[in-house]
Amino acid sequence: MIQIFVMAYIHNGNNEKTSAKKKFLQNQSTLNDDEIDLNRQSTNVTLLHKKDTLLHGIKLILVIFGLCCSVFLVSLDNSVVSTALPRIVSDFNGLNQFALVVISYIITEISFQPMYGKLSDIFGPKVTFLFAVVVFLLGSFLCGIAPNMISLIIYRAVAGIGGGGILSLVIIIISEIVSIKDQGKFQGLVALCYTISSIAGPLVGGALTDYVSWRWCFLINLPTGAIAMIIIIFLLHLPKPTGSLFDKFKRIDIIGTIIMMPSTVCILLSLNWGGSVYAWNSPVIIVLLCVGILGYIIFGLVENYIVIEPIVPPNLFKNLNVVSCFILNFFMGAAFFSYIFYIPFYFQVVKADSATQSGLDFFPYLLTVSIFVTLSGQLFSRTDKISFRSVFIFASLMAIIGSGLITMWNENTEYIELIVCMIINGVGIGLPLQSVILCVQCLTEHKDIASATTLSFCFRNIGTVFGISISGTAFNNKLIQLLNTLNLPSYFSTQSVYTIQSLPSDTRTLVIDAYILAFRIIFELIMLFTVLLFITSMFVGNVKPKHK
Description:
With about 550 residues, this protein is mostly helical.
């Protein structure tokens, strides 16, 4: 998932290079599949790594370790919280705010994410990276001492400000300290780090929740983050951008940021509140949607015509293949993270799992995703004969099959059946999860790689919020509708899943059946996302990885 293949193609012979460049310039307005190779040959002729920034030996190993620690803590945070959330919302009696804990983090993550690429250019990747880690750790500490649900939601938003930059900045730093030919090797290490943290997250989260306290699901980030910061401070030395501090601040796209952030918040709040807090046709939802959409339109115009150094380069959206990858990433985020946050919840309600056991039950899915994320990176680093589109199409078909099977889950489904369904879906999600980022990087010029990478993560996170919001709204509406038809005792509360087990046997069966039907709505929506994933894959050009 966290990879970057940034390579320069140096031609032999001036005539061949000149001819290729002329042909590219004549056809750039109608870029198609056959012309992608010309784009790569004519635009990537600048050496991307200066010798004085490359690291070697033990120093390189330690810096990579520090960067992997930061990747570990961010990806661990996401999967740990998903397992702990049922206990958290039960302790705070806030099941109706279940999705807000996730969405508050992602709202700020998305809003600040596009800025980090430009901030890296202005202040340098090292300083920007350290800033992101400090903010993330501050938010994690505050979450660990949160006294109520509202505080937790606010503090998760603080953590999201930092979390939005860590992953993309790791990519940028690695591209500076590692030679082109070694990119695949070190990206594999980062992918392995993500694999380990994804697998460990539900287990760690479940164990901490059951045997210590869910608060340590947040506080555990502090020592790992401290290690990463110490290593980067003392061992990573990159050239500092020129100019005074005042000049650097002047380069920040303040106008674009001011427009984009509230627009994003309006869109995401409308998605989360619609159908749950307010009716979809209520004035509040309509106003939020209109303000958000209008804000994005104004943001696009400002970035294209007014701002000198936009945080979102408009030229990226003039390439159909790049746009297709962005949209593909959107639906992938919607599908993948909806599973991550709702399947452990399903196991705790329907199978009466503890937090630890739900993490163990979910283990096959995350393991499969992690394995195929790593395999896809190795595949594209070893061969340039296979196109990204062919992998995307195959993967999306697997995701559709797996999602369709998951919609048939019920209280009598055997665990081996659950495993098979999760493995099939995990293959479909895992293969493109990382390689779609690589595809975007192969399609963009070197000067736009940082922005394109952060935008790719941004689209994935927007899809995540969209998927979780829509799924959560549909789930809550269906569950309330079904439970209202039952004669439930006064002590039963939908705000805590643990009261289900205290119900009489017959009533408990009816309540669990209601939850199963509500979960099925979520799984059907996810299947729709995978179908849209397949359709979008068809529009990605015949792009192949760069190896020269």
